[in-house]
Design goal:
The chain is an alpha+beta fold. It is built from 14 helices and 16 strands. The two termini are about 45 Å apart.
């Protein structure tokens, strides 16, 4: 039996040792609020496939909320204009770099800034892309920049197909690209003026952090975060720039794959232990997990379910999704807190709501994240006309056996403490 003392009250731990029966009722080791992580802002709801931008921005928000709670008085909190950040601002610069600099080729990694194979805008970003963009262009408040919408994407793709950005020569002209983006995003005059003042209209000026921040744009060197020391529990403050560059005591945040070996139950348990250790120190984590709409029980993901009907495959979003995990609740069995037969789960800030009564939070159960199942990798599609499908089905010869959790992003200190180094998938050279 795994040692549960670090998770459970002493009395409950004793009961488990003596009787070896599941606790009843379920004990919440860190019910919402007990981790002291407070996602107290309304989530930015996703209408397009940009969860890869939204999740890092929400991560920055939550970490900044720690700083506001521990380091600012009430008056200072009220005067903090950037306590909710804009994901749209980062998406704007992501699109700029795709059009101006990105060129698709077969060897381009999925996280490279490039247009899609058919010269359309990509909305799927990653933590690495967002990290680099924020260090180059800074941050703006959520109410100072429009969100990315389907209309913005349609206008940009139309420009790339038949408009002012249709030629390779136009895409090499920075001013032309910027004007086309400003028009597609329908930015107001004040926002356009701010962007031109801070970055020019030629090759973007380097982000100048020496002249102070405005109420709209702020440098990551001045955007403060907070967490707790791994050993002492003392509150530590640091800038977003230092966190992204790994210059604070926690080290650089890195992408760590969830162990996929079918015999690696102990390694997966250690991985989940590391998640809990981070959350208990007010360090929210980004998860990349398999969103399966057929397993969505009003925001609770417990079991892996699949449907391959025509309507399901056409209408339902399905695939890897990014969310910010900020809390957990354990329901251990005799085999420990990570037994899929138990009821342990993680709370995550999601980027959309499903249904009139759906919650923005989702509960990701260990039974969903830690169970091996088949994942369809490809669709077979027969098209009678653009957008008109004769048949949509899963190519059942192409399955991946995968777990519901793909990655989490941990700071180096947690990676070292829990010996997760074998599963780190990013390289040190990709840090700016």
């Amino acid at each position: 039996m795994r040692n549960l003392d670090r998770y459970l009250p002493a009395s409950l731990s004793l009961v488990l040792v003596l009787a070896c029966t599941p606790p009843a009722p379920t004990e919440s080791v860190a019910a919402k609020g007990n981790t002291e992580i407070e996602p107290s802002y309304p989530p930015c709801l996703q209408s397009v496939g940009n969860c890869g931008t939204l999740a890092p921005i929400r991560w920055f928000d939550v970490m900044h909320e720690n700083y506001r709670k521990y380091r600012l008085n009430e008056g200072e909190r009220q005067g903090d204009p950037l306590h909710r950040l804009s994901a749209g601002y980062v998406d704007y610069w992501y699109q700029f770099e795709q059009i101006r600099y990105g060129r698709y080729d077969e060897g381009t990694p999925i996280w490279a800034n490039s247009l899609s194979r058919n010269n359309r805008i990509q909305t799927g970003s990653t933590f690495e892309i967002v990290r680099d963009l924020v260090l180059r262009y800074g941050l703006v408040a959520n109410d100072s920049f429009a969100p990315l919408t389907a209309g913005v994407i349609d206008r940009i793709n139309a420009s790339l197909a038949t408009g002012v950005l249709a030629s390779a020569e136009a895409r090499l002209d920075t001013a032309t690209v910027r004007r086309a983006l400003d028009e597609a995003w329908q930015l107001d005059a004040a926002t356009i003026a701010m962007l031109r003042e801070r970055f020019g209209m030629g090759e973007p000026f380097p982000l100048d952090c020496g002249g102070g921040d405005s109420k709209v744009l702020q440098c990551p060197t001045n955007f403060m975060l907070a967490s707790k020391d791994l050993d002492s529990g003392a509150v530590e403050s640091f800038s977003l720039a230092s966190a992204l560059r790994g210059e604070n005591g926690m080290g650089r945040w890195r992408r760590v794959a969830f162990p996929q070996d079918r015999t690696a139950d102990d390694e997966r348990a250690r991985y989940f232990d590391a998640v809990v250790a981070a959350l208990r120190r007010n360090l929210p984590l980004m998860f990349t997990w398999l969103y399966n709409p057929f397993a969505d029980d009003e925001g609770a993901f417990r079991e892996r379910q699949y449907s391959f009907s025509f309507k399901d495959l056409v209408d339902a979003p399905y695939g890897w999704h990014d969310s910010v995990v900020y809390d957990y609740e354990l329901a251990p069995t005799c085999k420990g807190p990570w037994d899929p037969a138990g009821g342990s789960f993680f709370r995550a800030i999601n980027s959309w709501k499903r249904g009139a009564n759906a919650q923005s939070d989702v509960h990701l159960y260990v039974s969903y994240l830690g169970m091996l199942s088949k994942h369809c990798r490809a669709w077979v599609v027969e098209e009678t006309a653009p957008g008109k499908y004769l048949r949509v089905d899963c190519d059942r010869s192409r399955y991946d056996a995968t777990y519901g959790l793909k990655y989490a992003y941990f700071p180096q200190a947690i990676i070292d403490r829990f010996a997760l180094g074998d599963w780190v998938e990013d390289g040190a050279e990709d840090s700016p």
